[in-house]
């Protein structure tokens, strides 16, 4: 701070009146990192207490320009670590001065990176934009998306640009990693099949408990009607059947044999050929099998490129869990428990492990949960009331809300929605037929569209599609 004790009358060099008594630099004694800037200001105080900004009416200087330089407007640029004295001298005859110390510190270093969004789901053929936010030793944060180095763990599933834009190519769960200054962060990109790439239902398969067979049907894409196309033998007591999202593999639980059979699906004829090493052992009395939408994890109630299954472990379910399904985003899994409710789980995007997040009442004896491709509607077969229970799905929480019921045949066990989302099918175990329904795209309500004869005790049903 500079102080003048006297002098009145006139103007000092025509710039400030002589009644100004002092000038002061602000901020006082700041610290900045190398490569940063610091804006200084100078204020002038009059005898009457008035304060004016004199920043443009002073001459600025730095005592060590190798540490920091300062512009005529008072903007200091930090060049290397150390301290320098910043001085402001007023113009005119008074020549008032003030000084302060600028300390230049080493630049803050990166300590962690956070990627957003975390574990997003995207359909094959679409993109997902990631952002990398860095946290530094001084507690500050910055967007480092453009300066980070980006990588995908499997470029056949998804590639990623230098700006963090991922292009999904095929179903799976590649890891996306951003690296800067040897610090890295990763998240999982869940790539699922798009509805448009599998819009036309092509084949339907039904397991028959009494004679250990699997019936094959062709599907009329316009009407949803089915036509018999032969059968194959399965293991003992085939309870459940599912297809992987690509439509390349089919899996059948053999309830008495305690294993799962895996088949390769012929995309032209719909015929099934056993996968090498099939069948694969499971826990006791496997009931239902499902493959989640990215084609990475399979789940079996009781206890995927090559079609081979590897056990990851078990998690507790409700009483008598009989059916399992996964939503189209790969984020939620549902289990039908025969004691009248549906259990809901979240899926760990990296390990596939499950965490329970609640239950939903579901009639008297629910035996299956079917979800439409949009993830907005769910359907449950109740084998006591012989109804299909209809629900809307909260796509954020996975919660189910009841919207009504519709009559089915006798003992409606599996309810399946075709890949286009236009039709729903139910295997009526004691009626020995398949019920066909149309789906209202707005409300999810079902309307009867006919039936077709099935084998003896049809127990599982799945639909495959033309993969574009």
Q: Notable features of this structure?
A:
468 residues; mainly beta; Immunoglobulin-like; elongated; disordered N terminus; 5-stranded antiparallel β-sheet; Methylamine Dehydrogenase, Chain H; 4-stranded antiparallel β-sheet
Description of the structure:
The chain has 468 residues and is an all-beta fold. The protein folds into three domains: 2-105, Immunoglobulin-like, CATH 2.60.40; 110-192, Sandwich (Immunoglobulin-like), CATH 2.60.40; 195-466, Methylamine Dehydrogenase, Chain H (7 Propeller), CATH 2.130.10. The chain has no helices and 47 strands. Strands 28, 29, 30, 31 and 32 form a five-stranded antiparallel beta sheet that branches. It is elongated and about 110 Å long.
What is the terminal separation in angstroms?
77 Å
Number of beta-strand segments = 47
**CATH top level of the largest domain?**
Mainly Beta
Beta-strand percentage range: over 45%
Residue runs with pLDDT of under 50 for 5 or more positions: 1-17, 303-311
Number of helices: 0
The averaged pLDDT comes out at 84
Number of domains: 3
Q: Look at the structure and name the CATH superfamily of the largest domain.
A: YVTN repeat-like/Quinoprotein amine dehydrogenase
Main sheet overview: 5 strands, antiparallel
Q: Taking Cα atoms only, what radius of gyration do you get, to the nearest Å?
A: 35 Å
Structural class: mainly beta
């Amino acid at each position: 701070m500079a102080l003048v004790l006297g002098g009145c009358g006139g103007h000092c060099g025509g710039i400030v009146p002589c009644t100004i008594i002092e000038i002061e630099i602000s901020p006082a004694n700041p610290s900045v990192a190398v490569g940063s800037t610091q804006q200084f200001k100078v204020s002038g105080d009059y005898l009457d207490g008035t304060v004016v900004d004199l920043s443009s009416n002073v001459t600025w200087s730095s005592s060590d320009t190798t540490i920091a330089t300062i512009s005529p407007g008072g903007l200091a640029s930090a060049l290397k670590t150390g301290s320098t004295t910043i001085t402001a001298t007023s113009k005119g005859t008074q020549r008032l001065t003030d000084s302060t110390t600028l300390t230049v510190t080493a630049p803050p270093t990166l300590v962690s990176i956070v990627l957003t969004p975390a574990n997003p789901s995207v359909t094959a053929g679409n993109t997902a934009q990631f952002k990398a936010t860095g946290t530094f030793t001084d507690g500050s944060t910055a967007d480092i998306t453009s300066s980070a180095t980006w990588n995908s763990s499997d470029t056949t599933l998804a590639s990623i640009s230098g700006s963090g834009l991922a292009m999904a190519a095929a179903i799976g769960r590649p890891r996306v990693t951003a690296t800067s200054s040897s610090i890295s962060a990763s998240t999982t990109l869940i790539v699922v099949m798009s509805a448009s790439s599998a819009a036309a239902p092509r084949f339907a398969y039904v397991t028959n408990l009494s004679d250990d067979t699997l019936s094959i049907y062709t599907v009329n894409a316009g009407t949803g009607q089915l036509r018999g196309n032969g059968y194959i033998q399965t293991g003992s007591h085939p309870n459940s059947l599912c297809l992987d999202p690509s439509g390349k593999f089919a899996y059948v639980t053999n309830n008495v044999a305690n294993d799962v059979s895996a088949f390769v699906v012929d995309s032209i004829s719909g015929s099934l050929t056993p996968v090498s090493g099939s069948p694969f052992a499971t826990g006791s009395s496997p009931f239902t099998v499902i493959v989640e939408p990215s084609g990475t994890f399979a789940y079996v109630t009781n206890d995927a490129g090559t079609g081979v299954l590897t056990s990851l472990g078990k998690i507790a379910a409700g009483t008598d869990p009989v059916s399992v399904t996964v939503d189209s985003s790969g984020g939620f899994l549902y289990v039908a428990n025969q004691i009248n409710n549906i259990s809901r789980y979240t899926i760990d995007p990296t390990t596939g492990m499950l965490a329970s997040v609640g239950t939903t009442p579901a009639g008297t004896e629910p035996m299956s949960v079917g979800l439409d491709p949009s993830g907005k509607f769910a359907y449950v077969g109740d084998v006591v009331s012989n109804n299909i229970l209809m629900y809307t799905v909260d796509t954020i929480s996975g919660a189910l809300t009841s919207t009504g019921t519709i009559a089915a045949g006798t003992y409606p066990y599996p309810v399946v929605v075709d890949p286009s989302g236009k039709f729903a099918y139910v295997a009526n175990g004691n009626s020995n037929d398949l019920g066909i329904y149309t789906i209202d795209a707005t409300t999810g309500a079902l309307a009867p569209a006919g039936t077709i004869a099935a084998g003896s005790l049809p127990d599982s049903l799945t639909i495959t599609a033309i993969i574009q």
